[in-house]
Amino acid sequence: YKDRRRRVHTQAEQKRRDAIKKGYDDLQAIVPTCQQQDFSIGSQKLSKAIVLQKTIDYIQFLHKEKKKQEEEVSTLRKDVMALKIMKVNYEQIVKAYQDNPNEGKDQVSDQVKFNVFQGIMDSLFQSFNASISVSSFQELSACVFSWIEEHCKPQTLRDIVIGVLHQLKSQLC
Length: 173
What we know:
- By secondary structure, this protein is mainly α.
- The chain has helices at 2-30, 32-35, 48-99, 110-131, 137-151, 154-172.
- The longest helix has 52 residues, at 48-99.
- The relative contact order is 0.04.
């Protein structure tokens, strides 16, 4: 009876060890970094500890890649939404022009257009010049995005344009 129990236990233990060995072999076959030959090891089989560590490293790499791809997808979705909005706006402009092709022709001179553009750019440059340090490229790089986020918001740009148009209107009248 004891002999039979010992054989059953030995067989079960061998089966367990074989399953573990197969698991490590499968990991080694799946994980790309385990398949790369390390010349310092030569043709020796990788130890279980190295297989586990390389597997962990590879999973962490995959998680980082997934996060990067998710961020890229999110950015692309935002870009698509912005492009759709722009498309609708351009379609409305084209439709309005097709409905009344002569409306708005030659109503605004190039000089007035330039004065509007110059007024907007002067206002933006003044805020840029006051907010941005250009003593080094590193400081410039660090400040530019925060300036854009603060001073190029749609509401802020709208206020600048309205102010410039009021100023030009008072000059022309």
